[in-house]
TrEMBL record:
Organism: Nostoc flagelliforme CCNUN1
Protein's recorded name: PspA, phage shock protein A
Family label: Belongs to the PspA/Vipp/IM30 family.
Start-end of Basic and acidic residues biased regions: 249-258
Residue span of region Disordered: 201-258
Membrane spanning stretches: none
Listed Pfam families: PspA_IM30
Compositionally biased tracts (Polar residues): 223-239
Ranges in coiled-coil conformation: 47-81, 108-149
Amino acid sequence: MGLFDRIKRVVSSNLNDLVNKAEDPEKMLEQAILEMQEDLVQLRQGVAQAIASQKRSEKQYNDAQNEINKWQRNAQLALQKGDENLARQALERKKTYTDTSAALKASLDTQSTQVETLKRNLIQLESKISEAKTKKEMLKARITTAKAQEQLQGMVRGMNTSSAMSAFERMEEKVLMQESRAQAAGELAGADLESQFAQLEGSSDVDDELAALKAQMLPPATPQNQAQLPPQQETTAPKSNEVVDAELDSLRKQLDQL
C-alpha cells in the first residue's frame, strides 16, 4: 500500500468518525420521518395521476365501443336499404374504432394493474410511516433515558467518594470518642458515689469499734449500795489513764500509716 493510499484511508476514517459524532439520533429520526412523508406525498400524487389516466382511457374505450356499435347499426341499415357500398364504408369505420378499442383495452388493463400496485405501495408506505413514528417515540424515550444515565454516571464519577467516605469515618470516630468519654464520665461518677458510701460505712465501723473499745477501758459503774474504794486505789487511777492514752496514741499512728 502506497503512502497516498494510507493517507487517504486515515482521512476517510477521520471524516467518518466526525460524521458519526455529528449525527444526532433524534434529528436523524425526525429527518427520516420527514423524508418518508415526502415520499408519501409524491406517491399519492402518482396514484392520483394514474387513476386519472385510467379514467381517461376507460372513457376513450367506452367511446370507441359506442362508435363500434353505432357503425355496426349503420352498416345494417345500409344493407337493409340496399346500399352495399355505404354498408362497406360503415364497416370500414367500425373496423377503425375496433382497432382503437383494442389498443385502449390493452392500455386500460396495464393502467389498472399499475394503479392497483401503486395503491398497495401507498398503503404499505402509510403503514411504515405509522410504524416509524411509533419507533421514533420509543427510540426518543430510550435516548432520553440513556442520556440521563450517562449524565448520572458522569456525576458519580466526578464525585470524590474517597474523601466523602473518609469524612464520614472521621465523624463516626469523633462520635465514638464522645460516647466513650460520656460513658467513662458516668462510670467515674458512679464509682465516686460508691466510694463515698464505702467511706461512710467504713467510718461507721471504726466509730463503732472505737466506742466499744472505750466502753471496755472505762471502769465499771459502782452501785449505790457498794462501798467506796479504799483511798490507796485512787493513786493508781492516773496510771490507768496514762496507759489508755498511750494505747490511743498508738492506735492513731497505726491508722495514719494505713
